[in-house]
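Fold description:
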Amino acid sequence: MALLLCQAKGDTAGSCLKTLSPNPGGVDLLPPEVCSLLNPAAIYANNEISLRDVEVYGFDYDYTLAQYADTLHPEIFSAARDILIEHYKYPEGIRKYDYNPSFAIRGLHYDIQKSLLMKIDAFHYVQLGTAYRGLQPVPDEEVIDLYGGTQHIPLYQMSGFYGKGPSIKQFMDIFSLPEMALLSCVVDHFLGHGLEFDQAHLYKDVTDAIRDVHVKGLMYQWIERDMEKYILRGDETFAVLSRLVAHGKQLFLITNSPFSFVDKGMRHMVGADWRQLFDVVIVQADKPSFFTDRRKPFRKLDEKGSLHWDRITRLEKGKIYRQGNLFDFLRLTEWRGPRVLYFGDHLYSDLADLMLRHGWRTGAIIPELEREIRIINTEQYMHSLTWQQALTGLLERMQTYQDAESRQVLAAWMKERQELRCITKALFNAQFGSIFRTFHNPTYFSRRLVRFSDLYMASLSCLLNYRVDFTFYPRRTPLQHEAPLWMDQLCTGCMKTPFLGDMAHIR
């Protein structure tokens, strides 16, 4: 049962306690109309940006123009699992494992030498209770011992600019979900059967097996055979592109996928003349090196996919180009700076260089956002969060009381707050919680999202909810030295959540 503090004027913490029901004496725990105000179809801004100033729109293909159904993940998992067994000679017992869509979330880190999959916050701290070796949770004490008596991962060990550190790798793209699941299952099998293995070899073999699924074209074959099953929101993709062209915007596509695959997908979503919507189409671009390597020239592809040998001096509408590099792209198109807005799903490979090195505007496609917002809008989540905030405020204010009764009350509050944290975490994912937050801090994924994207949204179709000259303004969220009064009012129901009601018109 929740505990709430009454007015304290020099008394002990214990003497000021009331035991309250979820709605004691008519007191509103939640601000009026606070639920269901966040909209999963909205676009959220990290930086102020006016679409009126954007003249050129660029797009990645996979999970940007083409959204895929989750039914793709178990097929990737199963194919890579079979490759490990049949080509890498892994134990046949691994075949008993099936894909678990509820196990992992995007943005997790994997310590290769420790075989540890874990969630790390924006300050490089492991969130306790979210470290797994194989499919088994690792006790908090062991995690702390593994990192020298701390939850903190030093900067030199953390993943680098593209999510790859010397021994720790961050899983940032949506295709990494089956990879994390397979990695955990294989480790689980080896540990469960007492088999010795080299952690680095196992990690590389699993990564190579997942890569083989893509390189050998297996995933492309599945999607091409049944596009209705795998491709989502194709009509909305067509509506977004057509609307932009109708308003005089220039469009381009830069993708790592091969032309034949992209062509079939775009024909399914947009139609046979889809190339007429784009001023430039670049396939097999080899991002992220496309954005940093000046050496690879553009090559033109013909209708059959054969490469031409002639030097490219201009990029023509309706033609297909392969590889190349961004520096030649900028020279040939003269599309520079903030008048270009590029959308992608991978924060490192798609967006980081474009924002930091070239000053383009960037939009991150985060499909998980839709589900997480729907959870945030539930009454269970809002009640849990409100109580957590209230208890945190009580703990902070009343910690000065050190008599026996007060210490007992503070311990009860601490225990209740931890229980609420675990309940809230499990609403998103039983093992790892939300991709955006640890118990209270932003995750490392969130930190990168804010750093590398001006806008973020669940899908490209969210653009249909806004005028092409709309200006996005990031909300003024309080800094810590601005927060105490604002948060106290919010948590005790005395003030409505600011700025959310004006988004209610969005579908």
The mean pLDDT is 87. Residues 153 and 473 are 34 Å apart (CA to CA).
